[in-house]
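quick one
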Amino acid sequence: MPEISTIDVAGKRVFLRCDLNVPLKDGVIKDDGRIKASLPTISLLLKKGASIVIAAHLGRPKNGATPELSLAPVAQRLGELLGQEIKFTGEVTGTGVAEVADSLQPGEILLLENIRFSADETSKDEAVRSAFAQELAKLADFYVGDGFGAVHRKHASVFDLPKLLPHAAGTLVAAEVEVLKKLTQNPQRRFAVVLGGSKVSDKLGVIENLLGKVDLLAIGGGMVFTFLKAQGKEIGTSLVENEMVDVVKGLIAMAEKNDVRLLLPTDIVVAPTFAADATPTLVSADAIPSDQMGLDIGPESAAAFAAEIITCKTVFWNGPMGVFEFPNFAAGTKTVAQALTQVSGISVVGGGDSAAAVRALGFADSQFGYISTGGGASLEYLEGKELPGLKALELI
Ligand code: 3PG
Ligand code: MG
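structure w/ magnesium ion:
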């Protein structure tokens, strides 16, 4: 596959798949990291004299066009960041889109509406996806895949379309893969992975895989209570996946067998309700009151996690340690983020949500070794899965 730096797309129209799935609240973009991360490839293609049709998704629309999930605010922000007009017709395909695409001059950009407004994009039926990809292929001469956050999805614009057009990986996808290779191929030791977030079930595959690779696994976030329960502790009204308790017992045993240091919190910040103004109380992880829920790891735990993290040469972190959106329950996430900034080897913050968390807590991207734009994608890469979007670009 050609490198994007060497391809000749002057005067050509490029279909560019980006991940512009940004957090939105009431139509306002809360973190534009993924838009900014998409700029280098866009600028490079424009410099080469191409015109660009950009496709991206936003959220998971279930019933076709959903006004709250329109990419219109993204078109606006992208235009501001690039300092040029972004054409946006509010459609995914159709004659309006085809006409604007055909009229694009070198240097011009058309952003398609949320590609998931067409159910064919995510169809499990290969024939349906492939027919949709044929439609999309008519819009351009060349395909560039740069939506790293979506490369784990077997979707038409990610997996099927690149088979129909000459293609290349964008600079973001190339950079992400290079970093993930450093984590998976002979990482510098000690190698630590810090996982948070709400569900063990989402991360089971990656945990199982990592237990054969890492020196240290630290667990926080909502999923920690399933671990504490597996250790026979009272967890009050904390989030728990009861059906996962036995599986987690197996993971704890596997960590011991593989000589992986498993770090679990020893103190927890609890509250009676899940609310920003709920009164926080610090308790031992052995003594969570039956009517309270854990909303953050405590300071002793956070300090212990941090002390271990800074001794490591390779650290990957995905998922907040607590409900960082509520200031009273953000300290654990902040302490862990701070520790990552002090790592002397490579520190990687994985995932759109974790990236948004560190920015919301006041950290700058430059303080970390690398901030990945892909949560699920980077976890599945670490899990050793074959990612459809990378396979289609012949990157794996
Ligand atoms: C993400 O936010 O992780 C990516 O944009 C992929 O979105 P998805 O999980 O809805 O496929
Ligand atoms: Mg996601």
